[in-house]
């Protein structure tokens, strides 16, 4: 099976160098190239296909590619939104965040600020930070994370998962419950015998009546 990454396309950079005889420019050259991006694209809203089938959609206000900074990176300072489609172009999953960096040499994604994920299995994830290591096929976060699946909910401060988010763990868990238990009282989970026993032992005894010895029979 052909492996498809989130961005299966390349950039074509065209550099035009011209020489001109004449008066020499006296303006000083810009030497601080560390902050200069190789490419800056605004208003990106594009579809990505594989073998002629549309698979992904990318939306971002600003996309920078900086190969001079170390490590080299793609920069999405104004947010990133990714959608994945099935064959009928229905949305299967999505990823969104306020800021994203992709270190192309390290094959590492770094997402920050209101990170939200929906997988095709119905898992919903939210955090303020998320990393995706493509080399190790691992997704992780060391900040508070919130997961909701069709049958449970998890809160924790350390999240680890495979890149498909089908096998995951949450450490320092703050909460867990089955959705089927929401709205039920503890008595709903008791058997009839347990409930009857609870009512029996929970019933208060009658208050004793005070007898007046001076009263006539």
Give a concise summary.
This protein has about 220 residues and is mostly beta strands. The chain has one helix at about 190-200; strands spanning about 40-50, 55-65, 75, 80-85, 90-95, 100-105, 110-120, 125-135, 140, 145-150, 150-155, 160, 170, 175-180.
User: What proportion of the residues form beta strands (DSSP E)?
Assistant: 35-45%
Describe the oligomeric state of these chains in a short phrase: single chain
Write down the secondary-structure element order.
EEEEEEEEEEEEEEH
Largest sheet: 6 strands, antiparallel, barrel
User: What strand line-up does the widest sheet have?
Assistant: 2-3-6-7-5-4
Explain what the structure shows:
The protein has 217 residues and is mainly β. It is built from one helix and 14 strands; from the N terminus they run ββββββββββββββα. The chain has one helix spanning 192-202; strands at residues 39-50, 53-66, 73-76, 80-85, 91-97, 99-103, 108-118, 124-133, 138-141, 145-148, 152-156, 158-162, 168-171, 175-178. The protein has a six-stranded antiparallel β-barrel. β6 and β7 form a beta hairpin. The model is unreliable at 1-27 and 179-208 (pLDDT under 50).
